[in-house]
Amino acid sequence: MSEIASVASGDSRNDNGTAYMKLKRYLPYIALAGAAVIWGANTPIMKITMLYVPLFSLAFLRFFLAALILLPFVHKQLHFQKKDWFSLFLCAFLGITILITLYFLGLKMTSALNTGVIGGTLPIITLVFAAIFLHENMTKKIIFGAVIGMIG
Known about the structure:
By secondary structure, this protein is mostly helical. The chain is built from seven helices and no strands. It has helices at about 5-10, 20-50, 55-75, 85-110, 110-120, 120-135, 140-150. The longest helix is centred in the N-terminal third of the chain and has 32 residues, at about 20-50. The chain is globular, with a radius of gyration of 21 Å. About 5% of the residues are buried.
């Protein structure tokens, strides 16, 4: 049995920790690949789901269920001052609720492929808007990161 498989299966015969260190070393890459697969599968799954679930119900269910799942893990770390609640609400409403609802509306009106292509251009669009409206300096690193983000 390989060292990584022995750690993953709970086999404790390897006491020197090398298998654990190898697994720990590759875990971020596995997590990133998993996130990419989940995010890539999102568009076609949502396109099919919208055939059966109304648009606004789907947007609500998606985030309500995610909040219920995540809340037990983060509720002790959530500390907001009273003055921050309005900003938090505004960010959540505009950055999540409206954004995803418009995303689902656009997905309903076009193909999953077109939605993926448009979504892939978002890093470049964000870069352009940041340069125009926020007067951000566009370094080679930022441009490279946006191109990598667009490629996926």
